Every structure is written in structure tokens, then in C-alpha cells.
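=== Structure Prediction Worksheet ===
Name of assembly: unnamed complex
Input type: mixed (protein and possibly other molecules)
Chain count: two
Listed entries:
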Amino acid sequence: MENKGSFKPENIEQLLAAKSPDELNETEKAFVLQHFKTWEQVVAFHQLISASRQALDLNQEPDLQPDPAILSRLQQKLTEKKAGNERPKGLLRPLSQVFMYKIPVYQAGIAAAVLLAIFIYTAGLEPVDRSDKSTPAIGRTVAEDSLLIRDFTVTI
Amino acid sequence: MLHYSEQADNQLMQAIAGQDAEAFNELYKRYSTRLLHFFYTMLHKDREKSQDFLQDLFTKIIEKPHLYDPSRSFTTWIYTLARNMCKNEYRSMAVRSDPEVAVNYQVLLHSETTPNMDKLLDASAFREQLWLQLDQLGPEKKETFILRYQQNKSLKEISEIMDCAEGTIKSRLFYTLKWLADKLEVFDPKI
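=== Predicted Assembly ===
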């Protein structure tokens, strides 16, 4: 690096671009100091870096500060999150909150479709009972009918 | 137990994961101004948008603290988040395209009235010119430049934030400075 024959101003420029003076080690500092003033373009390059640092310095925009409302909103968010984490889960959750939960329409639709499918399936499985007891007249005898008529007459 | 101001960033993050408000306030105090300036520089000096981005970034910290890996540098992580937000914004700006046009137009106006030596020697005029030229850089070059010369990040930190080799960052900085030197001719000793 200190070989003058192979020295190019770009070597110092690259060093200056990558590191600030306080980041240079002793060898690099010596190298920069040795050649710095001999090349005008290196001086100009260094000036550009310094001026850029200065121009971008945060203090150049003293009125650019975080809006205090941001911190308030963030604190509010943090408080809400904390409250959310501390809230009891499951059955212990207040009922009002459970009722406030809005079921999405598609979920209700799916539930209805499932119930309908179950109903159709189970109805389809049951065989039609031809000797249905709900039609008692078919299986009754004449004697039974007479008894019924008699009871009916007595009641009247 | 250490006072919050004496705690390392990753310790504060662990406390924030447990919704510790004091830890959050300390972290906000440490990074909010720096990050606001970063956004401000990266988002073409849009104050309102910079404030919004700052709020969104810290909201992410509140809502998803688990995304942070405590074995890694917090600074690297938060700047990576900030950088990704800017990248997304650039993408949507590219879709909208209007801001780009506006910036180019502004530069065109300035290029027609090339500033003389006296004006450029004035710090504020230099500053204006520098900002304009930075807006002409590609996002990656601009980010590298800002992280190095405004946020004072080391090459190693920048390479971690931008997820690329240190050598790439080094040459990117060098060629950006060369390009700026050419654009801001006042620093050419031959003039």
C-alpha cells in the first residue's frame, strides 16, 4: 500500500469513501496523510465527503422532529395490546364481548349448507314405513271400530 | 436491574415483547429522530409521509416484536425494516409514476440555471444541489449513501442491512461519490 510506484489517487479516495477519519487504522492514517495533499482531486474528493456529511447532518433540519401525537398513538396501541393479553380467555371472557362478535356471512352460509346436507342424507337413509302407525284405520278391525263408536257415544 | 436508558436495544425489545411501555419509550427516544430523517431523505423530503412511515415502523415493533431475532443487531433489523418500507413505496411510486416525473422536472429546471461558484460555495445551495442529485440516484445507491453519510453506519452494518457484500457497498459508495463529484462540479479543482 505504501509503495509509491503503484500508488493511485483512487486508493485514497476508496479509503476515504469507505471510512471516516476516526475509523481508519494507524497504517491507513499514515498512508492518507502521506499522499493526501499531493493530489488535488483527493482533496476535492475529501471535501465532497465532508460537505455531504454536513449537508445531510440531522441537525440541519432542527424542526424535523417526530410528531408528539405519534408517540401518544403508539403508547395507546401498546396499552390496548397489553389489556388484550391480560383479558381472560374462553368462558371467562365477558359475555357482552362474545355477543359482539360478528359471524361472517359466508360462515353462516356454510353452516346452513352443512345442516341441509345432513338433513337430506339422513332423510334419504330412512326407509318408507308402509305400515305406518299414524294411519291406524287400516289395521283396525270392525269390532274395534264398534267399541270406539260406543265410547264416543257415551262421552257425548 | 439496569435503568432503561442503560439497557441494550435487544434487552429493550425483549421487554417490549412483554408490553413494557417504559422500554418502548426508551427505544423510541433512541431511534425515532434518526429514522424520521432517514425516511425524510429517502422519501423526497415528504414530511407528512415520513411521519406516517415512522408511526408504521414503530407499530410493527409493537405488534410483531417476535419478528426480531435477539441474537442479531437491533439497529440492523430496524433499518432493514425501514429500508423495506421505502422499497415498497418506490414500487408503488413507480406504478403511479407521478413523483418521478415531478423530480425529473425539478432537476431539469435546476440544470437550466447551472449554479455558479459563489452560489454553490454557500452551504445551503450545496445542500439543495446534493438533495436534488441524490433524488436522481437509484434507490440502492441512495440508501447506501444515506446510511453511510447521514446515519453513520459502518460498511459491515450497511452490508447486513442491505444484504449484500461489503465490497459491493464499498464500490457503490466510491462510484456514487465520483458521480456526485461530476454533477457538483464546484468540487472539481480544475474549475
